[in-house]
Design brief:
Layout lengths: L3 E16 L4 E17 L3 E5 L6 H8 L7 E6 L2 E2 L8 H7 E4 L3 H4 L6 H11 L6 H14 L16 H13 L5 E5 L7 H18 L2 E5 L3 H7 L2 E6 L2 E7 H6 L4 H8 L6 H6 L31 H5 L5 E4 L2 E3 L2 H9 L1
Parallel strand pairs: 3-8, 3-9, 6-7, 7-8
Antiparallel strand pairs: 1-2, 1-4, 4-5, 9-10, 10-12, 11-12
Helix pairs in contact: 4-5, 4-6, 5-6, 6-7
The structure holds adenosine-5'-triphosphate and magnesium ion.
The site of magnesium ion (MG) has 3 residues, from helix 1.
Length: 332
């Protein structure tokens, strides 16, 4: 794998909470709290975590759909947090997003042709209508749809076909990076597998990098080379996906993995015992002190409630944010 395409350092995104007739700020949602990672060129990097852990906010902030509260995002060596509206153009050509639900992300009043060619017009990519039409047909072919789909409207398509159109739209400007935010979770299981295979083929052929967001760990195992586990706005474990499955170190990761079906008898032996944690995910408005997972962790000690552990590299390329796991590994 080559050098980093994207380097995120100390990314913070907080949403103000306003109330009263003067809309005064009364608090904030700490959706993303100091997240750092990098994505290599043509790597599929996975981001998993429960609902509300901040996965979509990371994706949208990376693409400057949201303005970061703090932190830096380097893309091909350029700090995109400093780009002005005008200079954002370069980044917008290179980095695209596919959202979870193609029903709401496609405009029902636009034909598929008009949906895919919109960015070609904004970025003045093709010389004329004929050249644009050729590119639209080409992008439809990439997602295995025939050219006559360009004259249809989203309501005439199935869920899987709509998501293929959303992918074709993301491919319009020939990007090198795509954020895929739960791209198959709104689809039937049989259609999911086909769309996943399509995404894998496109990535291999076009050497793109993906940030692949999902709450489905078994899917991550089939697609991502490295995976980060998020909890309440922070990364608690990051490793090569296979290492995460065969040697999960954080109690939270172990709990997530214990809920995933195994594929072989050998794995059944290695898999952590089915664990459960008490209660709901706490609120990012007022997160727990120290390690945010401590109120739900059966191994928690006093220090866990008092100090936030660092995300430490305890094995080559394997990072964990857990006092207990770090102590256990440094003792061996
Ligand atoms: N635009 C917004 N304004 C205010 N709060 C927001 C906004 N977007 C997200 N949040 C809050 O930030 C936190 C993280 O949300 P986010 O959507 O990033 O989580 P997620 O991990 O993608 O969850 P899911 O798996 O449900 O998609 C949540 O508490 C959410 O309510
Ligand atoms: Mg989300």
């Amino acid at each position: 794998m080559s050098e980093s395409l994207l380097v995120v350092e100390g990314l913070v995104k907080r949403f103000p909470i306003r109330a009263g007739i003067f809309h005064r700020q009364v608090g904030e949602v700490k959706a993303v709290e100091s997240v750092s990672f990098d994505i290599k060129s043509s790597e599929i990097f996975g981001l998993v975590g429960e609902s509300g852990s901040g996965k979509s906010t990371v994706g949208k902030t990376l693409l400057r759909i949201y303005k970061p509260t703090k932190g830096t995002i380097q893309f091909k060596g350029r700090d995109v947090t400093k780009l002005t509206k005008e200079t954002l153009r370069f980044f917008r050509q290179q980095a695209q997003m596919v959202f979870q639900d193609p029903k709401s992300s496609l405009n029902p009043r636009r034909s598929i042709k008009s949906t895919i060619e919109e960015s070609l017009i904004v970025h003045k990519v093709a010389k004329n209508g004929g050249a644009r039409k050729k590119i639209v047909a080409d992008r439809l072919a990439m997602v295995e749809l025939s050219p006559n789909y360009m004259y249809k409207y989203p309501s005439m398509l199935s869920g899987g076909q709509r998501q293929r159109v959303a992918i074709a739209r993301a491919l319009a400007l020939d990007p090198s990076f795509i954020v895929l935010d739960e791209p198959t979770s709104a689809l039937d299981v049989s259609v999911q597998a086909k769309v996943i295979r399509l995404l894998q083929r496109l990535q291999a052929e076009r050497q793109m990098a993906y940030l692949f967001i999902s709450h489905d760990l078994s899917l991550m195992r089939t697609i991502a080379s490295r995976t980060a586990v998020m909890y309440l706005g922070r990364i608690y474990e990051l490793a090569a996906t296979e290492d995460l499955f065969t040697n999960p170190l954080h109690p939270y990761t172990k709990t997530l993995i214990s809920a995933v079906p195994v594929v072989s008898a050998e794995e059944r032996q290695m898999k952590p015992k089915k664990q459960s944690y008490g209660g709901e995910i706490p609120s990012p408005i007022n997160p727990p002190s120290g390690c945010a997972f401590h109120p739900r962790c059966s191994l928690a000690e006093q220090v866990c409630a008092q100090e936030l552990p660092d995300l430490a590299e305890v094995l080559p390329g394997h990072f964990v944010r857990c006092h207990i796991a770090i102590d256990a590994l440094s003792a061996t």
